[in-house]
Write a structure and sequence with these properties.
Shape of chain B: globular
Oligomer: heterodimer
Strand content of chain A: 5-15%
Strand order of the largest sheet of chain A: 2-3
Structural class of chain A: mainly alpha
Distance between the termini of chain A: 41 Å
Largest sheet of chain B: none
Number of helices of chain A: 18
Number of helices of chain B: 1
Helix content of chain B: 10-25%
Largest sheet of chain A: 2 strands, antiparallel
Number of strands of chain B: 2
Largest interface: A-B, 83 and 45 residues
Distance between the termini of chain B: 15 Å
Helix content of chain A: 55-70%
Radius of gyration of chain B: 14 Å
Order of helices and strands of chain A: EHEEHHHHHHHHHHHHHHHHH
Chain lengths: 376, 52
């Protein structure tokens, strides 16, 4: 959003209508904010009533300029206008989701739908939020089923991408002997493809890339390797065209991680090197380009180059992401046969993870690091 | 497209130190932003993001 949305002059007229706050969730100074407003989806957009310090609106995921304009209008109305029963339920659901109560939030989103008129203007956002809350509550069966039911209601709108793709991901997570799995996969795969192909929907390139990722994952999970490869090639071509349209280095670099993923999946990691070297020049303080270069070199078997790039990333990294960079470094030493340094580096990752503020610390991650060290 | 916590490695936005934002964002200071919103009597918009 920083590359494409917050730089759009169409938003200038909103500058004085809100106070604008950017929270880097990796930055330890935001621990108190994260305790009050836990974030588990990036980005998450909030509109907060400053007097009550309560969330009037929560939107999980990125937004295009038209989407953001609608969210801003909605948030203002929800704070100041008279609310319908459906709107009140939606605000309550957003509050529960903010508190990390995903199952309860899903019930409240359902209540909003039950109270809403057929032409409810917030049905798209509510459908996205409901399906996503169900996914986060690990209720994959209901997530997939509700996505399939709600898709016709959001078809042809930007909410269709999140409803179809999140639902498809949930359907793929159902047990293979679940009788609902195959029909839900079929319905939601078609819905995702239909949304991807609908050029009239004002989706961001990022959204369309996400649809490709989900569709590829679905084909791969069905052991349709030929279908997955065809889609990966289509995805890479799409991403190259989107990156070429970028008017700034930031806009081009948005597609770096997507392209890296596509090239590695296509077993062509060398294709990622020139763009990542360019990004490292364009953003010399950003840890992402060298971290991604390390992944590309690793996939090419160039472990010494990967370690050098990983070292540059490590110098610039901070917050929880630094743990992943240290883990990658440990893996690289292991691949080189240096078991002793691999173990020491993994211990360093654990030590660093334990030093993070509670809000940035993941017990599951700590457990997995300890388990890994025990085997080294 | 939304991303779950488990999808960290596929996350999207790079740190954009050079981005020219048209909106006057306050960086990483909730207390200051909250106070300003109360004083101006306007809602607080929050973009919770990560640099990966």
């Amino acid at each position: 959003m920083r590359a494409f949305v917050f730089t759009d002059k169409a938003l200038e007229r909103y500058a004085g209508q809100f106070v604008w706050l950017a929270i880097d969730t990796e930055n330890g100074t935001n621990a108190a904010f994260l305790k009050k407003y836990p974030i588990n989806v990036w980005p998450t957009l909030l509109i907060v009533d400053p007097k009550k310090e309560s969330v009037a609106l929560r939107y999980s995921g990125g937004a295009t300029v038209p989407q953001l304009k609608k969210l801003l209008a909605d948030g203002t109305k929800l704070m100041h206008g008279k609310q319908s029963a459906a709107d009140e339920a939606l605000s309550r659901a957003d509050g529960l989701e903010t508190a990390g109560k995903h199952a309860e939030a899903a019930i409240a989103y359902e209540a909003a739908f039950a109270a809403a008129p057929k032409d409810w203007s917030r049905s798209g956002r509510a459908a996205e939020s409901l399906v996503f809350a169900l996914a986060l509550a690990h209720d994959q069966a209901r997530c997939a089923a509700r996505a399939a039911e709600l898709y016709p209601r959001v078809k042809g709108t930007y909410s269709a991408a999140n409803v179809a793709a999140t639902g498809l991901g949930c359907a793929g997570d159902l047990k293979e002997d679940d009788p609902h799995r195959a029909p839900l996969l079929d319905t939601l795969e078609k819905a995702s493809r239909e949304t991807l192909d609908d050029a009239k929907i004002p989706l961001s390139g990022d959204d369309r890339s996400g649809l490709y990722e989900t569709l590829i994952g679905t084909r791969a999970s069905m052991k349709d390797e030929a279908g997955a490869t065809t889609l990966r090639q289509e995805w890479a071509t799409f991403l190259e065209a989107e990156a070429a349209k970028g008017k700034t280095a930031e806009q081009r670099a948005v597609y770096d991680p997507h392209r890296l993923g596509a090239y590695i999946a296509l077993k062509q990691p060398e294709k990622a090197i020139p763009m990542l070297e360019q990004s490292e020049k364009d953003f010399p303080t950003d840890y992402n380009p060298p971290a991604r270069l390390a992944s590309a070199y690793k996939a090419m078997g160039r472990y010494d180059d990967a370690l050098a790039a990983n070292g540059r990333a490590l110098q610039r990294a901070y917050g929880p992401r630094k743990i992943g960079i240290l883990r990658n470094r440990s893996d690289l030493y292991a691949l080189k046969g240096d078991k002793n340094t691999a173990r020491k580096t993994m211990e360093e990752a654990l030590q660093y993870a334990e030093s993070l503020p509670a809000e940035q610390r993941s017990e599951a991650l700590l457990a997995s690091l300890r388990k890994k060290i025990a085997t080294m | 497209m939304k991303k779950l916590a488990i999808a960290l490695l596929l996350a999207l936005s790079p740190a954009l130190a050079l981005a020219k934002e048209v909106l006057p964002f306050i960086d990483n200071d909730y207390g200051r932003a909250l106070k300003m919103a109360r004083t101006k009597n306007v809602p607080l918009f929050v973009d919770a993001w990560a640099p990966w």
